[in-house]
Amino acid sequence: MEETRKILMLGCDQQDYGALCKLLSQTGISVEVSVVNQQKSADALDPFLHGTAYDCIFLNHHLPKHDAFAIIEQLQSLAITIPIVIIIDEDNQQDATQLINSGAIEYIRKSELSSTILTKILRLCIRLGDAEKKVAQMMHKLQESNESLKCQNQELAAQKQLIRLQKLKLLEVSQLKSQFLATISHELRTPMNAVIGFAQLLLRPNFQTLTLQQTDMVERILNNGKHLLMLLNEILEFSGLENGDISLKPEVFDLSQLIDTTVAEFRSLADEKHLSIIVRNHLQNHVVFNDKRKISQVLTNLLSNATKFTESGYIWVEIDELPDNRVAIAVQDTGIGIAPQDINSIFEPFWQVDQTTSRKYGGMGLGLAIAHSLVKIMCGQITATSQLGEGSMFRVELPRQILTPNSHHINDSYGSKIMDPVKKRLLL
Ligand code: ADP
Fold first, then answer.
1. Could you give phi then psi for residue 316, rounded to 5 degrees?
2. 396 CB under 6 A from ligand 1?
3. What are the residue ranges of helices labelled H in 88-114?
4. Which architecture, in CATH terms, is 168-243?
5. Of 425 and 407, the one with more pLDDT
6. Residues 385-390: what's their mean pLDDT?
7. Is the CB of 298 under 6 A from ligand 1?
8. Is pLDDT at 418 greater than 50 in this prediction?
9. How far is the CA of 97 from the centre of ligand 1 (A)?
10. What percent of the chain is modeled with pLDDT above 70?
11. pLDDT at 165 over 50
12. pTM of the complete model beyond 0.70
């Protein structure tokens, strides 16, 4: 059943009211009519209009005290959007047009009042009113979601601020940690150098006074001192990298020669463990312009791990040319390998597969973190592949020629040397 529509008649006299009610009853639309008599002022309408949701207002233009304009204006100022239909006398056509311009939706001449016209107008009012209600509901919903978005926005901003503060705190802590590591390792290096120096002094041939047992003891002091110094240097290097204190010092050098020299340093250690180190060098052009010390350091860290974590088999070092003027250095071993769940963590500082204090292999978990940072500084990349129990392979890719603000100049300054087209020894 169609819902009953509420109609308010303003300023209608008894006669108009009777005629309108009669016609309305013939429209087939269920209506409930309220009347406000002619004496009501515009202000007095306020509580009246706020109480009920009217579908339509029939406003008699011919109000004795307050004209229809004032009523429309007041309704608008109260944000009341009920469709208003003006009932006019014959002679007020001009006013009717102005009232439409002011906000009424339609006018009807008293002489033209009929159930058909009223039905049409009422339907129009109902449609308009319903649309208005829908718009209001949507606006309300929009406002609600706007409010909740505002709240979410505020929450996000607060969280952002919190994250920013936490980040700053973390940064501060990390800087303090690096600072602490740098200070400690630096302070410990001086006495350690003294220990090593005096142990070396005692082992000199002119110190004939030492017995065999004493010599053995001093040798142990020396070896342990060197090991400790190596660890201190590692910490110092790491804190320097973290603080961004390490800069590139590129130079032109023979990469194959550097690899041979670095590998040679591990031969005796490998021999002790009965491991063979095999080098396969596929470089056509051995010359690179890069940071020699950093490449040596990276290779040293990889070879040190390969020797440490391999009990039998071999260590394989392979150097290759790559497209785009890049070179690859791979260090492969037949050692204990790394489990898939651990492989992504190995480049993190202080991370070790075995974190227990009773672990078999020594070290601080810094070697790969340092290698990773150094390779990054040199615009290269380092990757690891491994199979538990089978072995691991670390592969470093580096640009043959590192780009620095002066690299053009450096390249040019080697122009005269770069030239041996047959040997290509110095060609970058
Ligand atoms: P450290 O060797 O001092 O522990 P690294 O940063 O060099 O620190 O290596 C981190 C960890 O990665 C090692 O503790 C080890 O668990 C694992 N790892 C690194 N290299 C190898 C390798 N060649 N074979 C097996 N495990 C390795």
1. -115, 120
2. no
3. 93-102
4. Orthogonal Bundle (1.10)
5. 407
6. 95
7. no
8. no
9. 91
10. 89
11. yes
12. no
The pLDDT of residue 333: 97
Q: State which ligand 1 atom lies nearest to the alpha carbon of 347.
A: 6
> Domain 5-113 classified CATH 3.40.50.2300?
yes
Q: Which atom of ligand 1 is nearest to the CA of 351?
A: 10
Ligand 1 close to Cβ of residue 237 (< 6 A) = no
The atom of ligand 1 lying closest to the CA of 346 is: 12
- Ligand 1: does its nearest atom lie under 6 Å from the Cβ of 63? no
Domain ranges within the chain, ordered by starting residue: 5-113, 168-243, 251-419
Query: What proportion of the chain, given as a percentage, has pLDDT over 90?
Result: 47
Task: Please tell me if the CB atom of residue 349 comes closer than 6 angstroms to any atom of ligand 1.
Answer: no
The reply to whether ligand 1 has any atom less than 6 angstroms from the CB of 382 is: no
* pLDDT digit string, tens, across residues 361-386: 878 889 999 999 999 999 999 999 99
Element (H, E) at 410: helix 407-413
Q: Where are the beta strands (DSSP E) in 282-427?
A: 287-290, 314-322, 326-333, 381-387, 391-399
First to last CA, the chain: 92
Show the tokens assigned to 173.
């802590």
pLDDT for residue 417 is more than 70: no
Report d(CA 320, CA 281) in Å as an integer: 7
Q: Which CATH number fits domain 251-419: 1.10.10.350, 1.10.3660.10, 3.30.565.10, 3.50.50.100?
A: 3.30.565.10
- In the chain, count of helices (H) and strands (E)? 11, 12
Pocket test for ligand 1, best of 352, 359, 385 (most atoms within 8 A of CB): 352
pLDDT at 412: 38
